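[[Per-residue structure]]
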Amino acid sequence: MKQLSIFLPIFLMPLLLLAQQTLDPKFEKKIEELIEHSVPVISCERLEQKVNTPNLYLLDAREKKEYETSHLKDAVWVGYDTFSPERLTMVPKDGIVVVYCSVGYRSEKIGEQLKKMGYSRVYNLYGGIFEWTNRTYPLVNLQNEVTTKVHAYNRDWGRWLNKGEKVY
């Protein structure tokens, strides 16, 4: 009985954490259909607690227009279709790297590339900037001013963005 009481919390903890990572269960289901978990995920709550961690680098894997509308403070734009390793010169291989996009698909693909390039501590922001915004965590514009505007990619994907001002 003692072994069972130790085993159950260890076994159930990852499931409980995963189940609590988005505010909308339908959005959660959509994310799980999109990502393969080939890159470890980090929840918005966990990242928000760690934003001032030394050696933490935030990479925005959306396209330039999306990044220019808003992004996480101190995030570096690396793009997706236009991704280039030259944009990573300031990111050490042993740095803690969190990649995000709108919902997590593009950032996972960029995260896979980073791992192949030798980055060892790469994480995908679960739910991306949409979930970050839905939880009312701050965003900034190009002038580093707080904004509520979020590029919602398109109207179909924008339905997952429940807070903030949608921009297309």
About this structure: The first helix runs from residue 2 to 19. The chain has one domain: 2-167.
